[in-house]
Amino acid sequence: MTSATLSLRPASRVRLPIFGGLALAVFLAGFLLPGYLEGGYLQSMLNNGFITGILALCVAFVMHQCGLVLFGIATYYGIAAYVCAILVNSFGFSAPSAAALALLAALVSAFLIGAIVIRVKPLAFMMICLSLAELMRHLVALPSLRGMTGGSDGLVFMPEGRILGIDAMDMLDSARVWPLIWSATWVVAGIFLVVALSHFGVRLRAIKENEERMRFSGFDTYWPRVLAFAGVGLAAGVAGVLQALASGFASPEMFSIITSTNALLAAITGGVSSVVGPVLGGVIYTWAISEFGAMGYSQLFTGISVILVILFIPRGVLHPLRLLLRKGGRA
Amino acid sequence: MIPTLILNALAVSSLYIMMASGLALIFGLRRVMNFGHGAIYMVGAYLGYTIASGMNFWAALILVPLIMSVFGVLLELLVLRPLERRQQIEVALITFGIGIVIAQIVIRIYGGTPLSVSAPPLLASSVKIFGADYPVYRLFITVIGLCSVVALAVWLNATRTGMFVRAVSHAPDVSSMMGINADRLSLLISTLSTAFAGLAGVLVGPYLSIDPGMDVAMIITCMIVVVIGGTGSIWGAIFAALIFGFVQTFGTVYLHEISVLLPYLMLIGILVWRPQGLNFGGGAE
C-alpha cells in the first residue's frame, strides 16, 4: 500500500502526541523566522518557496489520492492572482473581499474544469490540464483586454484593507507577509492530511485503485474526484492570492508550463504521499532555480531535473528511506 | 477571400498533420506520448535555417529530415526501449524534460531572436487562383502535406510493414505472439516520426517565423489535435489537424485576436460531447 504515511497504523497512533507536539513547536517557531532572516533575499526566496510548496501539495494530493498527474496547476494559481488584481484595480475592491472572491473564482473554475477533465483518460487529462493553462496565458495577454489584465506586461495593483490583521500594503514586505504564507501552508497541508485520512480520502484512493470495481460496488466514482479537483483548485488559488498580495503583481508567466512543471517536480521529489516533502521540495527547487536563474540556466535546470527525478526517484527522495525503515521495523 | 482562406488552412493543416500523425504513430506502437516532439520540430526549423542559409533550401529539405531521423533512432534506443516497462505518464514526463533541454540548447546556440528563411526562388512567386494572388510556397506545403498523408495511408494499408504497424497498434500482445518484432517496427516509426517533425520544421521557416517559443506552441497544438482526434488514433489525429487548421485560419480573419482561444474552446467543447475524443477510423485505444 503506497498510502502508508497517510493511513493511521497502530504504531503511529502511539506516536501521534509526539508528532503533534513537534509539529506545534515547528509551527510556532516558524513565526520567529523573520526576526532571524531580517527580510532580504533569503526571506523572499522562502516566501516563494512555500508558495510553490502549496502548489506542490496540490499536485501531490491529486497524484496520490486520484492517481492523476495534474500538469496544469498554474491555471488556478494564476486565475486567483488575476481575479484578485483585477477586482482591486478595475472595480475598487478592498484586499480581503478581492482575495475572497479570487478564491471563489479558483474554486468555481476548478469545479467546472474538473467536471470535464475527470472523465478523460489519465494521459489526456495531463495534456488537457496543460493546454488549459496555456489558454489562460493567452487569454490574459489579449491586447483587447489590456485595460483590465495589463496584457503581456502583467498587472500591478495596490490593494487596501487588512487581511487577518496584516495591512495589505505591508504584505509587499517579505518579512510581514511571511506569517500569512507560513500559516496558509500549514492550513492547506493540514486539510489535505485530514481529507486523506477521512472516509472521503479512502474512497478516492479506492477509485484510484480500481474505478470499475468501485462503480460496480455502488459507489459514485465521478463526483468525489470532481470535488477533490475543485478543492485542489481552491488550494492553488490560495497560493495565487498569496503570490499576488506578496508581490503586488500578476503576470501571464504565472500560467506558464514552467510554473506547473516546478510544482510537479517539487511534489514528485518530495514524495506525493507526504505533506512535508512537497513543501520542502518547493523550497529547494525555488532556491535552486533562483541560483541557476542567475546564470541564465533556470529552464535547463528544470528540464534536467524532470529527466533525473522521473528516471531515478519517481517516488520521491524519502521513498527508499521509508522502505528501509519499514523493513527495519518488521525485522 | 474564402478560397484563399481555404488554401491557407490547408497549408497550416499540412504542418499539423505531419506533426500529429507522427505522435499518434509512436503512441500507437509504444503507448508513449512524446512531449519532446515540439522540440524536435524546433531543431528541424533551426537546422533548416542554417542549411538554407549556408547551402540552399532544397538541400535543407532533404538533409534535415535525414538528420532528424537520427534523433528518432536515439529516441527509440535511449528513451523508449529502456523505459518500456515504466508507466506511460512517467515516460511522457521524461520526454517533456528532454524537450525542454533540447529547446534550451537550441536557444543557447541560436539566441532568442526570431529568424526567418526566404523561400527558394522557384517557389517565391505567386499564382492567380480564383482571381487572387496566392504564394506558390504555401501550395507547395499543402502538396507535401497531402503527399505525406497519401503515402502514409498507402504504407499503412497496402504494405506488409504497414499491416504489422496496424496489428501492433491494435493488439500488441497478440501480434508479438504471431512473431511480429515490435521493437524493430518502433525503431522505424520513431525515425519516421522525427523525420516528419524535421520536415515540418524546414517547411515552416519560409512560411511562418522561427522563434524560441515555437516548440511549446507546437506541442500544445499537437496535444489538442491528438486529444480531439482520440489519443492514438492516426486518422482521428489527421482529421483533427485539418479541423484545427481551418478553425485557426478562419478564426484569425473573422474573430481576430479571440482566435488564439478557439483551439482550446474547441477542445473543451469536443470533450464535453465525447470524452474519448472523435476517435474514429480504428484507434489504438
TrEMBL record, chain A:
CDD domains: TM_PBP1_LivM_like
Transmembrane feature ranges: 16-33, 45-62, 69-92, 98-118, 180-202, 222-242, 263-288, 300-318
GO molecular function: branched-chain amino acid transmembrane transporter activity
Keywords of the record: Cell membrane, Membrane, Transmembrane, Transmembrane helix
Pfam families listed in its UniProt record: BPD_transp_2
Alphabetical list of InterPro entries matching this protein: ABC_transp_permease (IPR001851), LivM-like (IPR043428)
Gene Ontology CC, one term: plasma membrane
Membrane topology according to the record: Multi-pass membrane protein
Subcellular location: Cell membrane
Protein name, per record: Branched-chain amino acid ABC transporter permease
Organism whose genome encodes this protein: Paracoccus lichenicola
TrEMBL record, chain B:
GO molecular function, one term: transmembrane transporter activity
Membrane-crossing residue ranges in chain numbering: 6-27, 34-52, 58-79, 91-111, 136-156, 185-210, 216-247, 254-273
GO biological process: amino acid transport
Keywords on record: Amino-acid transport, Cell membrane, Membrane, Transmembrane, Transmembrane helix, Transport
Any single Gene Ontology cellular-component annotation: plasma membrane
Record-linked PANTHER family: ABC TRANSPORTER ATP-BINDING PROTEIN, BRANCHED-CHAIN AMINO ACID TRANSPORT SYSTEM PERMEASE PROTEIN LIVH
Record's protein name: Branched-chain amino acid ABC transporter permease
Native organism taxonomy: Bacteria, Pseudomonadati, Pseudomonadota, Alphaproteobacteria, Rhodobacterales
